[in-house]
Design brief:
By secondary structure, the chain is of the alpha/beta class. It has a single domain (about 1-260), classed as Purple Acid Phosphatase, chain A, domain 2 (4-Layer Sandwich). It is built from 7 helices and 12 strands. It has helices at about 20-30, 45-55, 80-85, 85-95, 130-135, 165-175, 190-195, and strands spanning about 1-5, 35, 65, 100-105, 105-110, 140-145, 180, 200-205, 220-225, 230-240, 250-255, 260. The chain has a 7-stranded mixed sheet with strand order 3-2-1-9-10-11-12, with no helix packed on it. It has a 5-stranded mixed sheet with strand order 4-5-6-7-8, with no helix packed on it. A hairpin with a 2-residue loop joins β9 (about 220-225) and β10. α2 (about 45-55) packs parallel to α4 (about 85-95). The chain starts with a strand and ends with a strand. The mean pLDDT is about 95. It binds fe (ii) ion (FE2) (2 copies). One fe (ii) ion binds near residues 40, 71, 185 and 208.
Length: about 260
């Protein structure tokens, strides 16, 4: 059994500070084995925002793995953006931009999809798909985590990350079972599965955990409880007009037949 918590798009500097304590309390109560922080940890990648985010993350007791989002590269300093885009991130959140972790028979592998040359759109770097595929555990459950989604639903107004489609087909073919993403500040799991395009990969697109943008409607995070081929998602939602989290919405999935089905 593995309990993996996916927390993404914190946007420190433009975040709901009143929700920090309820979020930390809920995370502590869930006692996850691993917390995966999916990028956009800060809003503008300033040293002050990085320090506040670091102080917040230091209050989480569980092991953690972090990767950058497009908001974690310098916004206002073009020289830093081009020549050392991830220096601030690495100083505050660790040197490894593509960490990996293991919980029991579950392996989690991060990709860095932030592209310092393009503000919104991400990219999967040359060689990264092959690198991740080379570390897949053929006997266990394999999860890939990155900031940018690998598939967009119709009506998403952002451009899909470069090489996203190739990455998703290759990861699915190689035995990746779950992909964790953020960036869009919109929840999508069943709608992505229902497209039928990638039935062997459960794509968990989680909304923003703390961003204060009112049009996002809610803040949220998700806990994955994985037992062999069975997986349950516990989605914890805090509506924008409430300074706390509702009781979780739970949905269950199985890949016992070789493809994911909601059960
Ligand atoms: Fe974001
Ligand atoms: Fe983003």
């Amino acid at each position: 059994m593995a309990r993996i918590l996916h927390l993404t798009d914190l946007h420190f500097g433009f975040h709901r500070s009143a929700l920090e304590a309820p979020l930390l309390a809920r995370i502590a109560a869930l006692r996850p084995d691993l917390v995966v922080v999916g990028g956009d940890i800060t809003h503008r990648a300033t040293p002050g925002q990085m320090r506040s985010a670091r102080a917040f993350l230091d209050r989480i007791e569980a092991p953690m793995m972090l990767m950058p989002g497009n908001h974690d590269v310098p916004t206002w300093n073009p020289v830093a953006r081009i020549f050392w885009p991830f220096a601030g991130f690495q100083r505050h959140f660790g040197p490894d931009l593509t960490p990996a972790a293991r919980v029991g028979d579950v392996r989690v592998m991060a990709l860095n999809s932030a592209d310092p040359y393009v503000w919104q759109r991400g990219k999967i770097r040359d060689g990264e798909i092959g690198r991740v595929i080379g570390t897949i555990d053929p006997m266990g459950t394999n999860i890939v985590a990155l900031h940018h989604p690998l598939q967009h639903l119709p009506r998403v107004d952002k451009v899909l990350a470069r090489r996203a489609t190739e990455a998703l087909y290759r990861l699915e073919g190689a035995g990746v079972h779950v992909v964790l993403t953020g960036h869009l500040h919109r929840w999508a799991v069943d709608a992505l599965l229902a497209t039928g395009r990638h039935p062997r990969v459960l794509q968990v697109q989680t909304g923003t955990a703390l961003c204060a943008r009112v049009s996002d409607m809610r803040n949220e995070f998700v806990l994955l409880d994985i037992r062999g081929t069975e997986l349950s998602l516990e989605r914890h939602v805090a509506p924008m007009d409430r300074e706390g989290f509702d009781a979780p919405e739970i949905s269950r999935y199985s890949r016992a037949s070789g493809v994911w089905r909601r059960v």
